[in-house]
Amino acid sequence: MATYTLKEKGGFNVVGIGTELKSEYTKVPEEHSMIHFPKGQYLVIQGEGKTADELSSSLTGIAFGQVLPAADKFAYVGGPNATVEMGRRDGLVYGEMWIPVVPK
To answer: How far is CA 8 from CA 29, 46, 72, 101, in A?
Structure first.
């Protein structure tokens, strides 16, 4: 099982950056949106990857494929989640995934 922590966080906003696909072959410019994260308890999982996409994919797999299905004291009930890139070290991107959870 992956190592994770539960942290209490105040409400905060994150600027979301994504690419919207107009059709199967045409990309439109990146879109930015402000995403509000409510005050509460968050599942925080740390990890690293060779690229930002690899980091995000790895953390998502650990969170939704391992930690949340096995959790008996908390649950994810929807809402925003985020992969946060913290920096680079030893040629790898490291960061965290933040997922809001509630007690079971």
So the answer is: 35, 16, 18, 10
Q: Phi and psi (nearest 5°) for 95?
A: -175, -165
Q: How far apart are CA 89 and CA 67, in angstroms?
A: 25
The answer to whether residues 32 and 16 touch, using CB atoms and an 8 Å cutoff, is yes
CA distances from 75 to 9, 26, 41, 93, 100 (A): 16, 37, 10, 28, 9
Q: What pLDDT is stored for residue 37 in this prediction?
A: 86
Query: What does the block give as tokens for 52?
Result: 């930002």
pTM: 0.79
What are the tens digits of pLDDT across the range 25-77?
A: 445 555 677 788 889 999 999 999 999 999 999 999 999 999 999 999 999 98
Torsion of CA 14, 48, 28, 25, to 10 degrees: -150
